[in-house]
Amino acid sequence: MYEFPQSPNNGDITEVSGVNYIYEDTSGWIINNEKFGTIKASFQYVASDGQSTFTGLDTKATTLSYEIGYVDVIVNGGKLLPTEFTATDGTSVIITGGVPEDTDVELVANGVFTVADHYTKAEIDELLAGKADV
């Protein structure tokens, strides 16, 4: 597993397998995409025995925050199904049944963005209807 630089400063950038990450004091290491902005943030925890709720500061001292409906839960490298966890408040995740001690838990907050200044298919069809065929 790739280890991110220790003690980064706000705005530091690193590359992992061709993906650029930027460090933000409030979110930790997040994927950085110049065109779309932040598209995901990763929060890492190591569970205590039977721990089911993950919230607050992670192992990087980053506070968990996500958009409801846009979080993935990864336990020891395997992605959980949405039916195996509850994530309804944007600040905590509850894993059904909990996990054993020293289990690696990663919570991936996927960014949400809206496409602006675009046309629907119907609008494009209408615009092109009067154009000559080439």
List segments where confidence is low: pLDDT < 50 over at least 5 consecutive residues. none
- Number of DSSP strands? 10
Question: Radius of gyration in whole Å, from Cα?
Answer: 20 Å
Count of DSSP-assigned helices:
1
Order of strands, main sheet, comes to 1-2-3-4-10-6-7
Class by alpha and beta content: mainly beta
Mean of pLDDT: 81
The description of the largest β-sheet is: 7 strands, antiparallel
Q: Tell me, briefly, the overall form.
A: extended
Would you spell out the secondary-structure blueprint of this structure?
Blueprint: E1 13-16, E2 19-24, E3 28-33, E4 37-46, E5 51-55, E6 71-75, E7 78-79, E8 85-86, E9 92-99, E10 104-110, H1 121-129
Antiparallel strand pairs: 1-2, 2-3, 3-4, 4-10, 5-9, 6-7, 6-10, 8-9
